[in-house]
Amino acid sequence: MSHPDHTPIDLAVIGGSGLYKFPGLENTERCSIDTPYGSASGDVVIGDFVGRRVAFLARHGESHSLPPHRVNYRANLWALHSLGARRVIGVNAVGGIRADMGPRAIVVPDQLIDYTHGRYTSFCDVEGAEVKHIDFSEPYTESLRQQLITGARAAGIAAIDGGCYGATQGPRLETRAEIARMKRDGCDLVGMTGMPEASLARELSLEYACLALVANFAAGCGDEAEISIEEIFAHLAAATAEVPRILSAMLES
Ligand code: HPA
Q1: Cys-Cys with 94: which of 20, 25, 65, 189 at CB 3.0–4.6 Å?
Q2: 167, 112 in Cβ contact below 8 A?
Q3: Residue 3 domain-assigned?
């Protein structure tokens, strides 16, 4: 199915925790898409943003009813692709592992390690589907990453260029030992939704980049013995407020 007025979509945004509606999206219409993989997390909302067509989908549903391991990543990517989107930004709440990635930092990672399990990770497991082995050496689209960084800098936001995103199963946060292991593995950030979203986007040949919003220091990385969920949401709200500024600067540049 394509978008009713056939205006090409310039950018699709998948909103994570804290981003359930896209501020500034105007003249919106909602598209409910059936996919061969089941239902997306909700309607895709398409509208005008700084003179461009932008599609928005709330990853966890608009009322945050889907935990990370229950998100239908395949249906979400399929829905955006079938509407004609070719560039997708995944906005993800994360914990910071690296010392310079504390609360409210904004990072555009360039690598990832997948620690998730039991999720549908490919479009290839439908009977009769062609088996595709995608190259995933560089999991994010470099040109889109650079557009995000340039946009952030144009908006006066010092986004950190690069870092390794470790995707965990959730919905619980990690133990200190798990984070210590992830640090030894080379992870700089930890989040629960970065995979299989990135690899499914690659299977569909979508351009894809991640805008990671640091909500807290990961377990054992900050001064506190415990992570406060209230604090996570407070930092996340502050970082999320920057997202439309970054994306408008990106689309205008
Ligand atoms: N771990 C995993 N996912 C997260 C965290 C964390 O500490 N903070 C926000 N999302």
Answers
A1: 189
A2: yes
A3: no
6 inside domain: no
Specify the number of domains making up the chain: 1
Is the distance from CB of 117 to CB of 196 less than 8 angstroms? no
Percent of the chain with pLDDT over 90: 88
Pocket of ligand 1 (CB under 6 A): 93-95, 168, 173-174, 190-192, 215-216, 218, 232
CB 209 within 8 A of CB 144: yes
In this prediction, residue 250 carries a pLDDT of 97
Collapsing DSSP states into helix, strand and coil, what is residue 59?
coil
- Ligand 1: distance of its center to the CA of 7 in Å? 37
Which CATH number do you get for residue 246?
3.40.50.1580
Domain hosting 216: range is 11-252
Distance of CA 117 from the midpoint of ligand 1 (Å): 17
Of ligand 1's listed atoms, the one at least distance from the Cα of 219 is 7
Q: How far is the CA of 173 from the centre of ligand 1 (A)?
A: 6
The Cα–Cα gap between 239 and 119 comes to: 28
Residue 197 lies in a domain: yes
The per-residue pLDDT for 129 is 78
What separation, in Å, do the N-terminal and C-terminal C-alpha atoms of the chain show? 30
Integer-rounded Cα Rg, in Å, for the chain is: 17
What's the rounded Cα separation, in Å, for the pair 244 and 253?
Answer: 14
